[in-house]
Amino acid sequence: MPMVVLEKYGNLLINSTYGYADYLWKEVLNPHWTNFFYWLLALSLFCWLLEIIVPWRKGQPVLRRDFWLDGFYMFFNFFLFSLIGYNALSDVGVEAFKELMGRVGVQHLVVWDIAEWPVWARLLTLFVVRDFIQWNVHLLLHRVEWLWRIHQVHHSVEEMGFASHMRYHPMETVIYRALEYIPLAMIGFGLTDFFIVHLFTLAIGHLNHTNVYLPLGKLRYLLNNPQTHTWHHAKELKERRYGVNFAITLSLWDYLFGTAYVPKDGKDIALGFKGIEEFPRRFWKQLRYPFERM
Ligand SMILES: [Zn+2]
Ligand SMILES: [Zn+2]
């Protein structure tokens, strides 16, 4: 590879890392309503209060099993992983992809430009398209054996609480972002666009895992909720080998494509998967797990 190319990507790596570190530091130092760090803290605190004041499973301890482990995952997946390389490498990946496209004659990826639409319509489009892509990616995580080994970290939760939302292998971030990138770029979105959409999905994701009774009535056909999502984590689902309720935010996809399943109140069902007793319990061992020989 010519030196000039190496230098370009080397600089990009360094600048991205410093840029992200700088952004993160400023976030922490400057509490503000457009600031993700404090939104995550506030949402977590809100969901935790719900678990304390109106718990669904009343016998579950407030500091449930793996509470601190899941808290660490939350911090790791939301901040540290970006800081220690993910952000820089994804910038390099995007740049390399654009260069490759340029070489094969594709100057820009946008095939359906919605930039002229009103803001609300663009937000809604981004949200619905992205959620549908993520629903498909989630399905893949359950159906492809090596992807399932990565996704097992999320399913190794046995006592559910708000922070379980962010207990997942950091490779999931890479898989979701990589598969989202091209379809979203085709309608003119970058991966970091639109704070409000991220915030909304973060809030619903947190609530789906919170130990609270929030069945939503008829709205449950549209929006995911803790009473639906608990079945996604069910340990035994004999008749549904590949799982049910893959919704991230919109449960609509599960109802449309026949993967919705809420047979009864799932308050006290066992969570996890077959063989969970053998699954590692510590953070680093869980991260290594998918890469160990089967
Ligand atoms: Zn899953
Ligand atoms: Zn979950």
Describe this protein with a few key phrases.
mainly alpha; globular; binds zinc ion; 294 residues; 10 helices
Verbal overview:
This protein is mainly alpha-helical and 294 residues long. It is 57% helix and 0% strand. It is built from ten helices and no strands. The protein is globular and about 60 Å long. The mean pLDDT is 87. Bound molecules: zinc ion (2 copies). The site of one zinc ion (ZN) has 5 residues, from α8.
Which value, in Å, is the CA radius of gyration? Answer: 20 Å
Order of helices and strands: HHHHHHHHHH
Largest sheet: none
Terminal residue distance: 36 Å
Quick take:
With 294 residues, the protein is mainly α.
How is the secondary structure organized here?
Elements: H1 3-29, H2 36-53, H3 67-103, H4 119-143, H5 145-155, H6 171-186, H7 195-209, H8 226-232, H9 252-257, H10 283-288
The protein binds zinc ion (ZN) (2 copies).
The site of one zinc ion has 5 residues, from α8.
